[in-house]
Specification:
This protein is an alpha+beta fold. The protein has one domain: Aminopeptidase (3-Layer(aba) Sandwich), CATH 3.40.630.30. It is 32% helix and 27% strand. It is built from 5 helices and 7 strands. It has a 7-stranded mixed β-sheet, with helices on both faces. Helix 4 links the parallel strand 4 and strand 5. Helix 1 packs across helix 3. The chain is globular and about 35 Å long.
Length: 171
């Protein structure tokens, strides 16, 4: 999968060191993983979850790298959380040095387009209310708030994007 500045590869077992470095990065931990440092075993299990989701639903998690240098920017894609939700949830994260440059929006658009191509009619996402940057990205992608939940950092809006069909949003 490609976007304007990035190329994406499905997350696989060989990616454990890179993916673990990303999800344990101080910038990423500000709003993800409930601020908890996850073990390599936990990270390895998420890779297996992504591989299973690709096999079952055609979507999962991709690592995003710059097209020009191959530098790891972050990850984007879908997780299915427990208890299993009807639809996988859009997630993304990037290293702080790439923040504020449009990469999160670009990654989100690529993942949404991929899911739409697989027949998804809606996508859900959540972001902590204190994570205003992520909420702005989700707004740019066309997500609308449908519910408020409590998260580890306070209020956590649940958002939905409806894909395809007349009069519906399309990213």
């Amino acid at each position: 999968m490609l976007s304007e500045r990035l190329h994406y590869t499905p997350l696989k077992a060989d990616d454990l060191p890179a993916f673990h470095a990303l999800i344990t990065d101080e910038y990423v931990l500000r709003y993800m993983m409930d601020g908890k440092l996850m073990t390599e075993e936990w990270t390895s299990a998420r890779i297996r979850d992504s591989e299973a989701l690709f096999a079952q639903r055609g979507v999962g998690v991709w690592l995003a790298r710059t097209r020009d240098t191959g530098e790891l920017v972050g990850f984007c894609g879908f997780f299915q959380f427990d208890p299993p939700e009807a639809e996988p949830q859009l997630n993304y994260a990037l290293f702080g040095r790439f923040a504020g440059r449009g990469y999160a929006t670009e990654m989100g658009r690529a993942a949404i387009a991929f899911a739409a191509g697989r027949g998804f009619t809606q996508i859900i996402a959540e972001a902590d209310e204190v994570n205003s940057a992520s909420l702005r990205v989700l707004g740019k992608l066309g997500f609308v708030r449908v519910e408020m939940r409590q998260g580890a950092f306070g209020n956590m809006p649940r958002l939905r994007l409806t894909l395809g069909g007349p009069g519906r949003d399309r990213a």
